[in-house]
Design goal:
single chain, alpha/beta, eight-stranded mixed beta sheet
């Protein structure tokens, strides 16, 4: 009886915002896969909230977010600075195992603005903006965890997923592992794109003009750099990533990630006007990475991607909090548009 009451309590917790309509997951359905990945990321958020609020046993609220989909919590990833839970490794357990389901999902949360985590998370946000996230111990711990799981089951059986700051960790890890020959299915929810918010300009001609001018400048920089015989493997490195196609999930009302829309749309427009060669060079650079290169740095802009399956949430969001939130990605009334962008 006590176990039954605990199960009911878990279901009630999950029903507050979880996708209860997914009583049976079709692992071939993109909406189901996206909803499960987002729910597992949400589970990491709740794990950390449970820790901060000292919710133990039946009071803990995190487990429904993975139990509902027949996953088990294999391991929590703990930050070595503030001892917060920033990630989780989930293992899929089901009597009717589907070959389309992942054996493991490694998920990462974003920023939590509570006293125990605010300082550390905001510092990592700044490192993300300055393209120094790879130097953080949190990212190094993430890479170790991912490599350990790959050694057990192989990259084809693993999903990466993250939201906001956690999406940046998953993106950087996905890039690194792809270059090592281990591309993984990846779900990036509201990934940060540190840039001037050009996408918020309403005039399409002005937006295109600004982006086109930026492309010419960046392409010129790339040509000049090669002309100076400076050793650079950026081209080869960028091309090496082109076969990896992560899922990008963005909301136009979220200025943190909305620039991905313009980033990929601009490639199509440049191709239409005969500027594809210019854009092939320009898309590998950001203004920030160019400035860094002038001063001797060689940091790669995290947000630059050759290929992606871009999904845009077209549903109305009344405020930034909802536009940036993780909940939108399992909404049963989700209205979205997906487009595959391949770097050729």
């Amino acid at each position: 009886m006590a176990k039954q009451e605990a199960a009911v309590s878990e279901l009630e917790i999950f029903s507050l915002s979880g996708p209860l309509y997914l009583t049976a997951v079709d692992w071939k359905n993109p909406h189901h896969r996206r909803s499960v990945a987002a729910s597992l990321v949400r589970g990491v958020y709740i794990l950390e909230c449970d820790r901060q609020e000292n919710r133990l046993g039946h009071q803990a609220q995190a487990s429904p977010w993975w139990n509902f989909f027949h996953f088990q919590l294999s391991r929590m990833l703990i930050d070595d600075v503030d001892y917060s839970v920033f990630g989780a490794i989930y293992e899929y357990h089901s009597f009717a195992f589907d070959c389309n389901a992942p054996k493991f999902v490694i998920a990462f949360r974003g920023t939590i603005k509570k006293p125990d985590t605010k300082s550390r998370d905001l510092k990592l946000d700044l490192q993300c903006i300055s393209n120094r996230l790879h130097q953080s111990s949190r990212f190094q711990l993430s890479m170790q965890a991912i490599q350990n799981v790959i050694s057990l089951v192989g990259a084809a059986n693993i999903w990466l997923a993250g939201h906001s700051l956690g999406s940046a960790i998953a993106l950087l890890a996905g890039k690194n592992m792809t270059r090592m020959g281990y591309p993984m299915e990846t779900y990036l929810f509201n990934p940060p794109f540190p840039s001037v918010p050009i996408e918020r300009i309403n005039n399409e001609k002005v937006k295109h003009g600004i982006r086109a001018a930026s492309s010419v400048v960046k392409a010129g920089f790339a040509v000049a750099k090669k002309g100076q015989n400076q050793r650079s493997q950026k081209d080869d490195s960028f091309y090496a990533l082109s076969e990896w196609v992560p899922g990008l999930f963005v909301n136009p009302a979220d200025h943190i990630c909305s620039e991905y829309i313009g980033y990929f749309e601009h490639r199509k427009k440049m191709e239409k006007i005969g500027g594809s060669k210019i854009e092939r060079l320009a898309t590998q650079y950001s203004i920030g990475s160019m400035i860094s290169g002038v001063f001797g740095g060689d940091s790669e802009a995290l947000h630059l991607l050759p290929s992606a399956n871009l999904t845009i949430n077209l549903s109305h969001c009344p405020d930034f909090k909802r536009a940036h939130g993780i909940h939108q990605w399992w909404d049963p009334n989700f209205l979205g548009q997906s487009e595959l962008h391949l770097f050729r």
